[in-house]
Amino acid sequence: MMQIDFLPQKFRERYDVRYQRLWRITVAALFIGVVGGTATLQHWLRCDAEERLEAIANPHVTALRINQELSRVYRELDRQKRQAALLTYLRHPWPMTRLLDQTLTPLEPSIALESLEVVYQPIGSAPRLQDVQNRRKAPGETEKKAGAQADLEELRRRYDGRRFLIRLEGATRDLDAFHRYLGKLALMPLFEHVEIGRLEHLAGDEAGVEFSVQITVRPGLGQVVVDPARQEQARQDQEGQPWQR
Q1: What is the CA radius of gyration of the chain?
Q2: Which entry of 2, 13, 14, 138 is 20 to 30 Å from 223 by CA?
């Protein structure tokens, strides 16, 4: 059965207009709600961030101040270390009085010393004093070093390549006492090595002997003495050992 619509066209148009207006209001309300909610959320987040920033502002300033103070302390510690290293190095070689005391204290009355000589012996290719004084800064070496560090390096260039020796010459009629004397010298804390250089009978005296002894003094405080002969021997020993897993 066919339905006949007697509603005029203008009423249909009004209905469509009201329907579209309702949708527009709904969409606008949703948009305003989203924008308002987003703004509210951002405001809350901003307030929370400001509160957190205010809470850590003072600790941050304190941490920066502590960090600056720590950096200053580290710089001062480094300077003091360089100064201490220089002062320690300046205390070598060992005082002559200590060397003489440890050399002469164990000496027995039956041993007569004729000479005692304390000398420096260069090791390997130690730089000469003139070469050190005429040394020029290498190309590209632009770093400026502190006074204590520069002085320490200068002293090392001068003295680390030399060894301290004590040479004794004398005579004795008691070989047992002589060997006891050498044994006591070898136990002295400042002596690294004791070596007999010469041992000969005195002319016209079968019981008497002449001797010469060389004592190697231990490196002084902070001194590094590298012996090329020992390095080469250590290298040969290492090369001669079988490979081990």
Answers
A1: 46
A2: 138
Domain range list for the chain: 9-47, 96-133+149-236
Residues 6+ apart with CB under 8 A from 210: 169, 170, 171, 198, 199, 200, 201, 202
Q: Enumerate residues 6+ apart whose C-beta is below 8 A from 230.
A: none
The helix/strand/coil state of 114 is strand
Tell me if 161 sits within 8 A of 127, measured CB to CB: yes
CA-based torsion, 92, 96, 97, 101: positive or negative: positive
Residue 83, classified by CB atoms within 10 Å of its CB into exposed (0-12), middle (13-18) or buried (19+), is middle
Task: Answer for the pair 213, 179: CB distance below 8 angstroms, yes or no.
Answer: no
CATH of 96-133+149-236, one of 3.55.40, 3.40.50, 3.30.2450, 3.30.70: 3.30.70
Distance, C-alpha 131 to centroid of its chain: 28
pLDDT digits (tens, 9 = 90+) for 127-176: 443 444 444 444 444 345 557 788 888 877 777 777 789 999 999 989 99
pLDDT digits (tens, 9 = 90+) for 179-209: 999 999 999 988 989 999 988 888 777 778 9
